[in-house]
Specification:
The chain is globular, with a radius of gyration of 19 Å. The protein has a nine-stranded mixed beta barrel, surrounded by five helices. The chain is α+β, with helices and mostly antiparallel strands and 262 residues long. The protein has one domain: Hypothetical Protein Pfu-838710-001, CATH 2.40.320. Helix content is 31%, strand content 31%.
């Protein structure tokens, strides 16, 4: 699978065919856009967002200090969520939907999604689970085994795709990241949008706007979303950032620096 750093208009025929195959094989499409920090306040104002309506989340990742899981295309996450139960996920990316085992696709235990943003796209497969917020807190503070947060199916899914990685209880805790998430429905746009603001410990932030749609709607929704965001003055030309990659690299760097100092 080629690295995706091109806009749709720049894709070759083969690359466009690959994208269309991924879209057809996916369960859903998530269109994403990150807004640079200097555009955060104008964008919040233009969209009429109220921070007091946002849900608080606390996100933890699990990997080695050298990000061995990430290098194998695997991400392991647990999340505490204000006002409802927390959750966990084992995610693989990039993947080709047709190459997933038939039993996983038939079972419905794994969801396949294409994330698309200006300049790139990636297809992922996720096995999700639920975890009580208190249990997540106990796991990251060392009073509960991390493996207990994940279902038997999730542990098997991880072992199948990262067979040489340490066990869940041996992985480092990368986090937390504090997140504000707000679902909203603009009067001028016929779809629900999601705004997420991720706060990193060094003071940096990533602000992301997204919307989900069915695979058959992807191109129409992409055009409509772009037109709406441009109409309210949102900058669509900025370099895009990835929330998970930024978090993993930040916390893994801290761990490696701590080991070097020790």
């Amino acid at each position: 699978m080629v690295a995706k750093t091109k806009r749709l208009s720049e894709l070759s025929g083969g690359e466009l065919a690959e994208l269309l195959a991924l879209v057809r094989g996916a369960d859903s499409i998530e269109l994403k856009l990150t807004v640079p920090e200097q555009g955060l306040r104008p964008t919040v104002g233009a969209l009429g967002l109220d921070p007091l309506e946002a849900q608080i989340r606390q996100v933890f990742f699990f990997d080695t200090p050298d990000l061995d899981l990430n290098r194998q295309g695997v991400a392991v996450r647990a999340r505490r969520v204000q006002g409802r139960t927390g959750d966990t996920v084992v995610k693989l990316r990039p993947i080709v939907p047709d190459e997933l085992a038939d039993d996983l696709r038939r079972s419905g235990s794994v969801s396949v999604e294409v994330d698309a943003m200006p300049g790139g796209y990636v297809c992922s497969a996720s096995m999700k689970g639920k975890a009580a917020n208190a249990d997540v807190r106990d796991a990251v503070t060392g009073t509960r085994p991390v493996r207990k947060l994940f279902s038997k199916g999730q542990r098997a899914f991880l072992a199948a795709h990262a067979p040489d990685s340490p066990g869940l209880d041996e992985l480092s805790i990368l986090g937390p990241i504090f997140v504000l998430k707000l679902n909203f429905a603009p009067a001028e746009f016929p779809r629900k949008l999601v705004a997420e603001l991720w706060f990193y410990p060094d003071g940096s932030r990533i602000f992301e706007l997204s919307t989900k749609c069915a695979p058959g709607e992807a191109f129409q929704v992409s055009v409509e979303s772009r037109a709406y965001l441009e109409s309210v003055g949102v900058d669509l030309s900025a370099d895009q950032q990835t929330k998970t990659k930024t978090a993993l690299e930040f916390f893994a760097g801290e761990l490696r620096d701590g080991q070097a100092d020790g």
